[in-house]
């Protein structure tokens, strides 16, 4: 089993996270936002796994499984919300669904 | 018999209650019966009590009746208790006697007024309060009566409340006297704190024993009480309310603003004379206030056109005489003048009321004229009253009482030539303005015709009062003319030290000269009035139309500018402040806090755009900053 | 147990009335009347038992005491006790409560049940405040009277009720919070009775706190009570709350809720912090005098009749503040009489304004004038209570103000002279009210119904109370004498000791 290169793994995780974040900030379609959040979560998961490998501990992988579960739940809830939003506003543009403004 | 004392004020009070609660429902005859009858019963009881008091004087010439203890705090126990001595008896007699006559008179005078019940209710309440005032054994109970008569005066001046001017006059009367009352209340605080009691007799004893003569505390206390007295009695500098008080019905002016209430100040000083005697400063102040007031009011009376205002100023002036007498220590002379004044001034007001009534509420003297033929009884009684007011020598009561004061002003130990001179000039003025009034309204050509002649219920009180105005003087005659001292002997029981002052410095022959001067003065006044206002009216007009003359005329007519002065100095600033601060600046402070909170809120809520991407961006920026801070600290 | 019953009956009555309200509003009025009547009978029974016919309490200060642990860890207990002062205040509360139910008989037509629920719960809170001898319990009841009062103004008030209700709530709540901090600080800083933390009044009473901490704790209490009183400059909530509240709300607000502030000062501030009070008294008296004059000038300027009456309350409470911090025998007794008399006179005035509003649908005096013609009964009643309010001798307010002023003259003559000017100012606003509403020419020619029999009876009850206190206030004075004496002695003795100690150390 080859040792994972820690630096490379973390850089990849950071890159994925940045892509996800950027997506959340620039995309207006809620579906894409959701997908970008998913990417960010996976980036965090990747960082856990890399860090776990570095210290030779299973905790990182355990956490990744947790994150997978949470992500699944999140997708379920998130898609339901998106569905509702679409029904109510007839759009998925998250800038136009700003009725919660102060 | 003396035990009936407490019932004297109770009858008018019962009358008041009946009129208040059933006034709307009872027929006028019953109302009149209750209104006048209750005071009549009270007068009858007073005469019974007086008979018992004179024939069988109680120990110490004073009768004390305690009903219950009012307040009891520590060593301070004012009681609801009555005290009857010669002084209180004379006051109570005048209040119930003259009061009864005026009530009877009012039955006809107010007969057509739709608020008949309210009128008698207020009048009865007034008599009750006045009796409490004069019979009170302590100053706190006296204060109930004192403010009570003020309230009734307010209610009755504003009796015809639909007219705004009357309401203003009523308010003015209440507020101005209340200023005096407040000064007096401060005097009470001082007395309670220093001497621990307000019981008049105890107070006088303690004042003598603890303060002694010429003590600053005594001066202060006496001056504070004087403040109350000048307010109620319309003396300088609080005299401004009394001329305006003539807005009330004429019987009210006669009873409250001439015969009884306005003399409450005189009564108060006489009642606490021991305190005043401790301080020559206070005595001097009383005398000077009296002397100045009688002169100022005399000049103002000279130029009025409204018959009731002439009488109002003459009341102020005559009370000035009483104050002068008090100030020189001639206690019984002051009370003597109070009594005769009550008779003749009530008479004058009622007779004037008869004229006003007959002419359908015409009060301007210059629209009367020639009435002596049309209203003979009113004319003759008015003439008798005027003679008494002017102090025409020998025949009337006013001469004897005023002469006693003039003589005391010169001869007593507190007196001086200046005080006498002021009073003498005042006496001449009195007779000028009095006969000016008589000549203008009753002589000359008739300018108005009599609508209806007064009936018996108006005439009988007039005749009785006229008789009293003539004969009441004979119970006290100077020692060089008959030397009768019934009144001052009787009064002497209330004023241990009084009665002597007038004689202490008497030089043989001196008194006769002063009497002649006084007599000549008042006769000269009549002559001057006759010359200017009957024989030669044009000369008076031409005198008044010179620049100085018209300015003086205006100045005197407006009561020496006191009203304008008070308006500028007190009324306007107060109104201004209250108007400026109507919305309460303190509230502004709290509103500012609320406003600042709201401002912060609205600024912060701008960041709540409702756009998820912005929130995410802010979260990112925040996280980066925190991470950065942690990394590069 | 009687004391618990006293507090509990209105609570239960309120619950029943609230439950009945949806079905039968008349029944619900009768239930509140009945509950309060029962409570009043109970209190009267206590009064006769402990004061006797003559109003002379026995030697012991406390009539009844009842205590049951609540949160023993912190020394908190249900500790109720009654002395003369509490008894007098309880009687006043129930009297005004009964009048309040009567006054809202026709005025309140919406959600009658919930109204009476709130009304009775306020009264219950007030009774609790007057009887609680545990500071935590005291605070509990302090809050109990606050929330229903908020609802009362918020739901049944006039046009601007929202603003007024929130303002009332914020002022009372913020100042109440200060008091809570003070109470907790007192409990923690006080040496107690050697058995851990306690909130018990008697423990604090036996060993008052001194030093700088006492000063700050005292100030916390003072701000809370001064807001409730209200004293200048904590008064602005009052004008709005009184003006906007329904009639019954105004009556008990002016009649009783303000008195809880004065009661708190008498009961807690004076005896618990003698040295701090001694240092602070001049400031407080100055605030009192400013309040008297400032509020009187404000009252004079108002066009809204109810607002005018509201400001007169501030002015009269200035006398109370002056008297409490003058602290002399005269002044303290005067303060108690003033509390009762103001409760009666202001209550009556608010009731009259409310009844007038029911008829002419305005409180703006610019739209009135000449009303004596149309409704003379109102004229007589308003005149009577205006005279009471300006301190006409023979009515209770005069006795109270006279005693307060004499008492404060003993310690601060100059301030007292200024305060006495308040009597003139009171004349100004009272006469202006009469002048603008009842005198002068009529503004319209409409006919209005005069006072009904019910209203006459309620006014008569107020008037008799004022006359009684005006000519024979002795029973009330006697009832509170032992309480005030012990307040005075605990305010005076430790201070003397303290001074002696600090004198030695110098």
Which overall shape of chain B is indicated by the principal axes computed on the Cα atoms?
Answer: globular
Q: What is the rounded distance between the termini of chain B?
A: 106 Å
Count of DSSP strands of chain B: 2
Number of strands of chain A: 0
For the sheet with most strands of chain B, the description reads: 2 strands, antiparallel
Number of helices of chain A: 3
Determine and state the CATH class of the domain at 30-91 in chain A. Mainly Alpha
Rg from alpha-carbon coordinates of chain B: 30 Å
Given as residue ranges, the uncertain stretches of chain B (5+ residues, pLDDT < 50) are: 498-506
Give helix and strand order of chain A, one letter per element, not per position. HHH
Name given to the CATH architecture of the domain at 30-91 in chain A:
Orthogonal Bundle
How much strand content do the residues of chain A show? under 5%
What separation lies between the terminal Cα atoms of chain A? 55 Å
Q: Indicate the overall shape of chain A.
A: elongated
- Helix percentage of chain B: over 70%
Largest sheet of chain A: none
Alpha plus pi helix count of chain B: 28
Query: Pair with the most extensive interface?
Result: B-C, 51 and 54 residues
Indicate the topology.
The complex is a heterotrimer of chains A (102), B (633) and C (506).
Chain A: H1 6-26, H2 30-55, H3 59-89
Chain B: H1 7-22, H2 28-55, E1 63-69, E2 79-84, H3 86-109, H4 116-135, H5 139-157, H6 164-195, H7 200-211, H8 216-233, H9 241-244, H10 250-259, H11 264-271, H12 273-277, H13 280-302, H14 307-327, H15 331-358, H16 371-374, H17 376-390, H18 397-411, H19 417-442, H20 456-471, H21 486-492, H22 501-504, H23 510-535, H24 537-545, H25 547-557, H26 562-580, H27 585-605, H28 612-631
Antiparallel strand pairs in B: 1-2
Chain C: H1 2-21, H2 25-51, E1 64-71, E2 76-82, H3 84-103, H4 112-131, H5 135-144, H6 146-156, H7 161-189, H8 201-206, H9 211-228, H10 236-244, H11 247-272, H12 274-301, H13 305-326, H14 329-360, H15 371-374, H16 376-389, H17 396-411, H18 413-437, H19 453-471, H20 474-505
Antiparallel strand pairs in C: 1-2
């Amino acid at each position: 089993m080859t040792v994972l290169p820690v630096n490379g793994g973390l850089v990849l995780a950071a890159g994925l996270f940045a892509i996800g974040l950027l997506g959340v900030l620039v995309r207006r379609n809620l579906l894409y936002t959701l997908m970008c959040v998913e990417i960010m979560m996976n980036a965090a998961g990747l960082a856990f796994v890399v860090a776990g490998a570095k210290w030779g501990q299973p905790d990182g992988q355990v956490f990744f499984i947790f994150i997978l579960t949470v992500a699944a739940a999140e997708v379920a809830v998130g898609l339901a919300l998106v569905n509702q939003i679409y029904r109510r506003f007839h759009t998925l543009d998250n800038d136009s669904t700003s009725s919660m403004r102060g | 018999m003396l035990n009936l004392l407490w019932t004297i004020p109770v009858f008018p009070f019962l009358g008041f209650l009946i009129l208040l609660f059933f006034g709307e429902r009872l027929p006028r005859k019953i109302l009149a019966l209750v209104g006048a009858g209750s005071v009549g019963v009270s007068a009858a009881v007073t005469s019974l009590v007086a008979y018992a008091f004179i024939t069988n004087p109680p120990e110490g010439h004073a009768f004390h009746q305690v009903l219950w203890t009012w307040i009891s705090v520590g060593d301070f126990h004012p009681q609801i208790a009555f005290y009857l001595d010669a002084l209180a008896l004379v006051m109570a007699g005048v209040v119930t006697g003259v009061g009864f006559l005026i009530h009877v008179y009012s039955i006809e005078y107010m007969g057509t007024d739709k608020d008949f019940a309210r009128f008698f209710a207020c009048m009865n309440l007034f008599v009750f309060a006045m009796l409490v005032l004069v019979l009170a054994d302590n100053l706190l109970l006296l204060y109930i009566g004192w403010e009570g008569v003020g309230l009734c005066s307010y209610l009755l001046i504003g009796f015809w409340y639909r007219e705004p001017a009357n309401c203003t006059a009523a308010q003015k009367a209440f507020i101005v006297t209340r200023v005096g009352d407040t000064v007096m209340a401060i005097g009470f605080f001082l007395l309670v704190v220093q001497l621990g009691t307000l019981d008049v007799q105890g107070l006088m004893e303690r004042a003598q024993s603890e303060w002694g003569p010429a003590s600053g505390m005594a001066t202060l206390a006496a001056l504070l009480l004087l403040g109350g007295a000048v307010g109620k009695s319309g003396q300088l500098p609080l005299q401004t309310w009394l001329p305006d008080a003539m807005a009330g019905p004429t019987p009210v002016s006669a009873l409250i603003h001439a015969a009884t209430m306005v003399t409450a100040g005189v009564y108060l000083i006489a009642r606490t004379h021991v305190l005043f005697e401790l301080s020559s400063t206070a005595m001097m102040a009383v005398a000077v206030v009296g002397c100045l007031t009688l002169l100022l009011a005399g000049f103002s009376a000279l130029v009025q056109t409204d018959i009731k205002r002439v009488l109002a100023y003459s009341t102020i002036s005559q009370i000035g005489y009483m104050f002068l007498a008090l100030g020189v220590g001639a206690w019984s002379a002051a009370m003597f003048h109070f009594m005769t004044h009550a008779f003749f001034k009530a008479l004058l007001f009622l007779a004037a009321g008869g004229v006003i009534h007959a002419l359908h509420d015409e009060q301007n003297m210059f629209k009367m004229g020639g009435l002596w033929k049309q209203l003979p009884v009113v004319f003759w009684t008015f003439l008798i009253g005027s003679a008494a007011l002017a102090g025409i020598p020998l025949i009337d009561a006013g001469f004897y009482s005023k002469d006693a004061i003039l003589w005391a002003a010169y001869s007593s130990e507190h007196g001086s030539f200046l005080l006498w001179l002021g009073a003498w000039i005042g006496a001449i003025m009195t007779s000028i303005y009095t006969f000016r009034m008589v000549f203008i309204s009753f002589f000359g050509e008739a300018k108005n015709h009599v609508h209806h002649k007064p009936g018996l219920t108006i005439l009988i009180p007039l005749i009785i009062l006229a008789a009293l105005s003539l004969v009441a003087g004979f119970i006290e005659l100077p020692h060089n003319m008959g030397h009768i001292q019934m009144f001052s002997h009787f009064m002497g029981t209330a004023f241990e030290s009084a009665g002597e002052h007038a004689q202490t410095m008497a030089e043989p022959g001196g008194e006769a000269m002063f009497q002649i001067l006084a007599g000549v003065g008042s006769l000269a006044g009549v002559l001057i009035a006759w010359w200017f206002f009957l024989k030669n009216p044009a000369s008076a007009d031409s005198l008044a139309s010179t620049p100085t003359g018209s300015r003086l005329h205006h100045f005197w007519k407006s009561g020496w500018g006191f009203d304008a002065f008070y308006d500028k100095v007190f009324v306007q600033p107060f109104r201004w402040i209250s108007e400026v601060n109507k919305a309460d600046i303190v509230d502004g402070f709290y509103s500012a806090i609320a406003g600042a909170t709201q401002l912060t809120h609205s600024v912060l809520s701008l960041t709540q755009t409702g756009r998820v991407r912005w929130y995410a961006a802010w979260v990112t920026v925040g996280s980066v900053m925190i991470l950065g801070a942690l990394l590069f600290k | 147990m009687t004391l618990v019953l006293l507090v509990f009956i209105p609570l239960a009555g309120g619950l029943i009335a609230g439950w009945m309200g949806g079905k039968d509003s008349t029944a619900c009025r009768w239930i509140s009347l009945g509950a309060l009547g029962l409570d009043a009978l109970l209190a009267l029974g206590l009064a006769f038992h402990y004061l006797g016919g003559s109003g002379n309490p026995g030697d012991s200060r406390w009539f009844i005491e009842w205590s049951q642990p609540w949160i023993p860890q912190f020394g908190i207990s249900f500790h109720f006790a009654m002395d003369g002062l509490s008894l007098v205040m309880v009687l006043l509360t129930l009297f005004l409560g009964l009048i309040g139910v009567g006054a809202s008989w026709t005025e309140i037509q919406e959600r009658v049940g919930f109204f009476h629920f709130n009304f009775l719960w306020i009264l219950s809170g007030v009774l609790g405040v007057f009887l609680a001898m545990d500071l935590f319990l005291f605070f509990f009841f302090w809050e109990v009277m606050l929330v229903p009062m908020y609802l009362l103004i918020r739901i049944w008030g006039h046009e601007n009720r929202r603003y007024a209700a929130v303002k009332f709530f914020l002022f009372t709540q913020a100042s109440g919070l200060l008091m809570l901090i003070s109470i907790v600080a007192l409990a923690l800083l006080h040496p107690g009775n050697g058995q851990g933390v306690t909130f018990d009044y008697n423990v604090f009473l036996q060993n008052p706190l001194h030093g700088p901490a006492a000063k700050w704790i005292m100030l916390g209490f003072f701000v809370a009570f001064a807001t409730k009183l209200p004293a200048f400059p904590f008064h602005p909530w009052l004008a709005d709350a009184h003006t906007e509240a329904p009639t019954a709300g105004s009556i008990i607000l002016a009649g009783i809720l303000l008195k809880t502030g004065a009661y708190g000062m008498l009961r807690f501030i004076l005896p618990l912090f003698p040295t701090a009070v001694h240092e602070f008294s001049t400031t407080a008296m100055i605030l009192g005098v400013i309040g008297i004059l400032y509020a009187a000038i404000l009252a004079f300027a108002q066009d809204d009749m109810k607002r005018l009456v509201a400001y007169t309350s501030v002015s009269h409470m200035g006398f109370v503040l002056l008297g409490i911090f003058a602290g002399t025998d005269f002044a303290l007794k005067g303060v108690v009489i003033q509390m009762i008399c103001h409760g009666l006179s202001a209550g009556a005035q608010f009731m009259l304004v409310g009844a007038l509003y029911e008829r002419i649908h305005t409180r703006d005096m610019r739209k009135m004038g000449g009303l004596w013609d149309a409704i003379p009964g109102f004229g007589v009643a308003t005149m009577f209570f205006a005279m009471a309010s300006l301190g006409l001798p023979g009515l209770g307010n005069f006795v109270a103000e006279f005693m307060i002023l004499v008492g404060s003259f003993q310690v601060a003559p100059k301030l007292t002279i200024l305060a006495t000017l308040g009597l003139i100012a009171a004349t100004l606003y009272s006469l202006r009210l009469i002048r603008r509403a009842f005198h002068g020419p009529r503004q319209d020619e409409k006919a209005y119904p005069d006072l009904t029999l019910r209203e006459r009876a309620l006014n008569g009850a107020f008037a008799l109370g004022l006359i009684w206190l005006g000519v024979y206030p002795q029973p009330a004075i006697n009832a509170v004498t032992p309480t005030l004496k012990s307040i005075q002695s605990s305010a005076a003795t430790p201070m003397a000791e303290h001074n002696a100690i600090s004198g030695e150390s110098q």
